[in-house]
TrEMBL record:
<keyword id="KW-0653">Protein transport</keyword>
<comment type="similarity">
    <text>Belongs to the SecG family.</text>
</comment>
<dbReference type="GO" id="GO:0015450">
    <property type="term" value="F:protein-transporting ATPase activity"/>
</dbReference>
<dbReference type="InterPro" id="IPR004692">
    <property type="entry name" value="SecG"/>
</dbReference>
<keyword id="KW-0813">Transport</keyword>
<comment type="function">
    <text>Involved in protein export. Participates in an early event of protein translocation.</text>
</comment>
<feature type="transmembrane region" description="Helical">
    <location>
        <begin position="57"/>
        <end position="76"/>
    </location>
</feature>
<keyword id="KW-1133">Transmembrane helix</keyword>
<feature type="transmembrane region" description="Helical">
    <location>
        <begin position="6"/>
        <end position="22"/>
    </location>
</feature>
<dbReference type="GO" id="GO:0043952">
    <property type="term" value="P:protein transport by the Sec complex"/>
</dbReference>
<dbReference type="Pfam" id="PF03840">
    <property type="entry name" value="SecG"/>
</dbReference>
<keyword id="KW-0811">Translocation</keyword>
<dbReference type="GO" id="GO:0009306">
    <property type="term" value="P:protein secretion"/>
</dbReference>
<keyword id="KW-0472">Membrane</keyword>
<protein>
    <recommendedName>
        <fullName>Protein-export membrane protein SecG</fullName>
    </recommendedName>
</protein>
<dbReference type="GO" id="GO:0005886">
    <property type="term" value="C:plasma membrane"/>
</dbReference>
<keyword id="KW-1003">Cell membrane</keyword>
Length: 77
């Protein structure tokens, strides 16, 4: 049981790292300054929906991470 929870925990850790790295930052940085005027209204809304979806996935992955952390703590006692 402990091995399965450990494997799930590692997969969730990697997923959190990937999801967070895929999200855009609060300020778009140099790429936002260069391409900021080129985006259309629809392009901006598309980006927001992708960020919203990634934000939802982040919350879901963090919930699983916390759950597996608690289970691992209880299993190691």
């Amino acid at each position: 049981m402990e091995i399965l929870v450990n494997i799930l925990h590692i997969i969730v850790c990697i997923a959190i790292i990937v999801i967070v790295l895929m999200q855009s930052g609060r300020s778009a940085g140099i790429s936002g300054a260069i391409a900021g005027g080129a985006e259309t209204f629809f392009g901006k809304n598309k980006g927001r929906t992708i960020d919203a979806i990634l934000n939802k996935y982040t919350k879901f992955a963090l919930a699983i991470f916390i759950l597996t952390s608690i289970v691992l703590t209880l299993l190691l006692r």
